[in-house]
Write a structure and sequence with these properties.
The protein is of the alpha+beta class. The chain contains 9 helices and 13 strands. Strand 5 and strand 6 form a beta hairpin. It is globular, with a radius of gyration of 19 Å.
Length: 295
C-alpha cells in the first residue's frame, strides 16, 4: 500500500493536472515514482503500488516497439504485463473478461483479456535513454504529453495485427487497472436487442476505436464529449460531415486534438459507416448517466 506521503504527492499531482493540463506535466516527471497505481477487481481495490513498489516486484526489460503515436521506432523500459498481472492479481486475471485502464486525462480503455493472452504487452515507465518520459503525439496535433506513471505498449515490430490496431489499445498516464466484465461495467453501451448486424459490428468498432475517449449514455472515457445523451451527435451533425469527422477531424476543425480513424485499419470506410449506424441506433436508446431509461 502507498504511504500517506506517497498519497500526498499523488493528490498534489492530480490537482496540478486539473489546473494546467499537459502544459505542466513534463515538469512534474520527478514525482511519477510516488503516484499510487490502483489494481482493482470488480471495483474492489486489490493493491495500490507506486513505481518504486513495482521495481521490487517485477524485473524490467528494454523493449523496442514501433511507436504508433510518433510513427517511429522507440525503446522503452517496461514491465511485462502478464508478469505484473500475476504479481498483483494472481492467476485470477485470466478468468476476467476485460481489463479497464483509467488514465489521468480521462481516457478509459477496455481491452479483452484474450488480447493479453494472445500478444505480448508491456507497461512502459521510462525511455531507455532516461530522457523525460514524454511524447509528441502526432496523431493529436503534435501535443506533448506526459506518459507516466504507466504506458501500455505492445511488442508490435513483427505483428501485422498489432500494427493495424493503431493506438486504440495503448493508453498512457495509466493510474488504475481493473478486472471486470464489459456488460457489468458498461451496461448502457450495448445496442438494442433487435439491432442489425451492421449496428452490432459498429458497436464492436466503437468499443475498440472510440469509447476510450467518448461516452455513450454516460459510459466510456471522459477525455472527449458525450455522444448520445441528451442529444446524439447524429442529430446535429450531417452524415457527410460526421464521416469526415471520424476519418479526418482536422478537415472539420483546425487544430483538433482528436485522432482520425487510423489509415492502417483495413476496410476503414466500411468501419466508419458501421460506427455511424451504431450511433444512429443509440440515438433512439438514450439513457441518462444515472441509468434511468428515458425511451
Amino acid at each position: 500500500m502507498s504511504s500517506p506521503i506517497s498519497r500526498s504527492f499523488q493528490n498534489i499531482f492530480l490537482i496540478l493536472v486539473a489546473i494546467c493540463g499537459s502544459v505542466c506535466l513534463p515538469a512534474l516527471a520527478f514525482s511519477q515514482s510516488n503516484i499510487g497505481i490502483e489494481f482493482k477487481d470488480k471495483d474492489q481495490i486489490v493493491k495500490i503500488l507506486t513505481l518504486s513498489d513495482l521495481a521490487s516486484e517485477v524485473t524490467a526489460v528494454s523493449l523496442t516497439v514501433f511507436e504508433i503515436h510518433e510513427k517511429k521506432d522507440q525503446i522503452y523500459k517496461a514491465y511485462p504485463a502478464r508478469v505484473l498481472f500475476d504479481k498483483t492479481f494472481g492467476k485470477e486475471w485470466l478468468k476476467a473478461e476485460e481489463i479497464v485502464f483509467i488514465s489521468m486525462d480521462g481516457y478509459q480503455a477496455s481491452i479483452p483479456v484474450t488480447k493479453f493472452t494472445s500478444h505480448d504487452a508491456y507497461f512502459a515507465f521510462a525511455h531507455d535513454d532516461n530522457s523525460p518520459f514524454t511524447m509528441t503525439n502526432i496523431l493529436q496535433n503534435n501535443e506533448v504529453v506526459q506518459l507516466g506513471p504507466l504506458y501500455l505498449i505492445w511488442d508490435n515490430m513483427k505483428s501485422k495485427v498489432l500494427l493495424e490496431d493503431g493506438a486504440s489499445d495503448m493508453p498512457y498516464q495509466v493510474k488504475s487497472i481493473e478486472l471486470t466484465t464489459f456488460a457489468t461495467r458498461f451496461p448502457n453501451l450495448s445496442p438494442p436487442a433487435k439491432a442489425s448486424a451492421e449496428v452490432r459490428r459498429g458497436f464492436l468498432h466503437f468499443r475498440k476505436y472510440c469509447m476510450a475517449c467518448h461516452m455513450i449514455n454516460g459510459e466510456g472515457g471522459g477525455k472527449a464529449p458525450e455522444l448520445n445523451y441528451p442529444t446524439s451527435v447524429v442529430e446535429y451533425i450531417k452524415p457527410e460531415y460526421l464521416t469526415r469527422w471520424i476519418e479526418n477531424p482536422s478537415s472539420i476543425r483546425h487544430n483538433s486534438l482528436m485522432p482520425g480513424l487510423a489509415q492502417e485499419i483495413p476496410n476503414r470506410a466500411k468501419i466508419t459507416k458501421e460506427i455511424i449506424a451504431y450511433l444512429k441506433a443509440m440515438s433512439a436508446t438514450k439513457r441518462s448517466p444515472k441509468h434511468q431509461d428515458i425511451r
